[in-house]
Amino acid sequence: MTRPRMIFPKARNAVASKPESTDDYQIYATYRRTTEGSYMGQLKVVRKTDGRLLFPFTGAPDIGPFTDGDQAREAAQRHGETVVQSDLDNPEP
């Protein structure tokens, strides 16, 4: 069974505006179960102003393991909020 992929459309205008608040980001936090029975957080963070995928990136750390799915999802959400705040403080081009 394959899951459908999340596809994020790119912004249409070539000149993207600078992100100004957390509303300019979308955080997708979820979890998956490993073969050992633990749970790993999964995260995607997208900057809405230009459609840039900020997380995950090549070499991104794993979130977990945790003993239950809610803990994994909450940890992913917290990590996503940290990524957003870091990008607001110092936006990547």
Task: Show the helix and strand layout.
Blueprint: E1 25-33, E2 39-47, E3 52-55, E4 63-66, H1 69-89
Antiparallel strand pairs: 1-2, 2-3, 2-4
Brief synopsis:
Residues 70-81 have a biased composition (Basic and acidic residues). With 93 residues, the protein is α+β, with helices and mostly antiparallel strands. It has one helix spanning 69-89; strands at 25-33, 39-47, 52-55, 63-66.
Overview of this protein structure:
Residues 70-81 have a biased composition (Basic and acidic residues). Pfam families: DUF6723. Residues 83-93 have a biased composition (Polar residues). The chain is an alpha+beta fold and 93 residues long. It has one domain. It is built from one helix and four strands. The chain has one helix at residues 69-89, and strands at 25-33, 39-47, 52-55, 63-66. Strands 1, 2, 3 and 4 form a four-stranded antiparallel β-sheet that branches. A hairpin with a 5-residue loop joins β1 and β2. The longest helix is centred in the C-terminal third of the chain and has 21 residues, at 69-89. It is elongated and about 45 Å long. The relative contact order is 0.23.
